[in-house]
Design a protein that fits this description.
The chain has about 350 residues and is α/β, with parallel strands linked by helices. It has helices at about 1-20, 65-75, 95-110, 135-140, 150-160, 170-175, 180-190, 220-225, 235-240, 255-265, 270, 295-300; strands at about 50-55, 80, 115-120, 145, 165, 195-200, 210-220, 245-250, 275-280, 310, 325, 330-335, 340-345.
Length: about 350
């Protein structure tokens, strides 16, 4: 009888272990093959719509760029309002974190405001994000326009399920009067007219074609918010999605760029992406025997069988900073002679 009982227990244990081994996990991780919903585009603008100018990071050193940037936006046919703390100087930030978030919340909650154009980047997004719940961003989808430190807010928007625009801010609009081609791309994009970018190739390009969700921006900024709820490179967002990553930097030594790239590799991000778009690395001095940043990065991407393009027009050289929609499905076609990027907005 004891032998029979032991036999039953052993058989039961084997069966239970087999079931457990094949039982799906339900700890928030989705199977890699399962597709997720993509971020959605906020409502596009029309003439007469209201645009808010905010300074959610640093305050402009020249406050006149806010006035001149507002003039450009008015010239495009928009009504312009300004955040209460857009000109405040609190230790070079545009107000305390609470004040800057107050401005953001005001612009998000006001239904008459259709977009937010940042005055400048600088520094400060990281100390505001924990005061900015993702469900609030999701509840009030608005176009946010900016780059550099504003990458932190763009990443948060994508994680909230909204698209956002990586593009020039008031400083460049003030400098050019908004009449140049790069500014017109931004104006048209805000109004729902998508450009098709075709730019010169680069000798180091890795040819190929890829489609996926476009995310990226300043490497230092999105590296600082890695593994937080605001991180668009976190596995909870990238799993189940095809990702095309774009990167840019300014005035960083090669040792820092090296660390940032190693961070991408160690966190598994490089294994996830379907293509890499390398923008400008302005003011990053050559060193360690490399002649350029593209040459330096080319060594990192050798093991990855993905298209890679270099010197794409995104970065701190504002005359070469084409607006890009974060979270938007795109198709990238890379050859040594040219690169094309098309935005594939879903039809509503």
């Amino acid at each position: 009888m004891k032998k029979l009982f032991l036999l039953i227990v052993i058989i039961s244990s084997v069966v239970t272990a087999g079931v457990a081994q094949h039982r799906p996990h339900h700890r928030g991780h989705r199977p890699h093959h399962e597709k997720k919903e993509n971020p959605v585009a906020p409502e596009f603008l029309k003439k007469g719509d209201k645009v808010a100018i905010l300074s959610p990071s640093s305050v402009p050193t020249d406050l006149s760029i806010i006035d001149k940037g507002a003039d450009v936006l008015r010239g495009w046919g928009f009504e312009v309002v300004e955040g209460r703390y857009a000109r405040t100087n609190y230790h070079t930030y545009a107000g305390t974190p609470e004040q800057r978030v107050e401005d953001i919340m005001w612009a998000l909650r006001d239904p008459s405001i259709k977009a937010i154009v940042c005055s400048r980047g600088g520094y400060g997004s990281a100390n505001c994000l924990n005061l900015l719940p993702l469900d609030t961003l999701k509840k009030y989808p608005k176009w946010i326009v900016g780059y550099s430190d504003i990458t932190g807010y763009l990443s948060a928007e994508v994680r909230a399920g909204n698209m956002a625009i990586h593009g020039n801010m008031c400083g460049y609009l003030a400098k050019t009067g908004g009449t140049d081609a790069v500014s017109h791309y931004l104006r048209d994009m805000l109004m729902g007219k998508m450009p098709r970018y075709e730019v010169p190739g680069h000798e180091l390009n890795k040819a190929g074609r890829a489609s996926g969700i476009l995310i990226g921006g300043n490497m230092c900024v999105y590296g600082d918010i890695a593994s937080t709820p605001y991180d668009f490179l976190d596995r909870s967002f990238t799993d189940g999605r095809d990702i095309i990553l774009f990167i840019e930097e300014v005035e960083e030594p090669y040792s820092r760029i090296d660390r940032m790239f190693q961070h991408l590799i160690l966190r598994g991000a490089m294994d996830k992406i379907k293509a890499l778009v390398v923008g400008r690395f302005d003011g990053c001095p050559t060193s360690r025997g490399y002649n350029s940043v593209p040459e330096f990065i080319a060594e990192y991407v050798k093991p990855y069988n993905i298209p890679v393009c270099y010197d794409f027009p995104t970065g701190h050289d504002e005359s070469w900073n084409y607006p890009l929609i974060e979270g938007c499905p795109v198709t990238l076609d890379v050859t040594r002679d040219k690169v094309t990027l098309e935005f594939n907005l879903p039809k509503k």
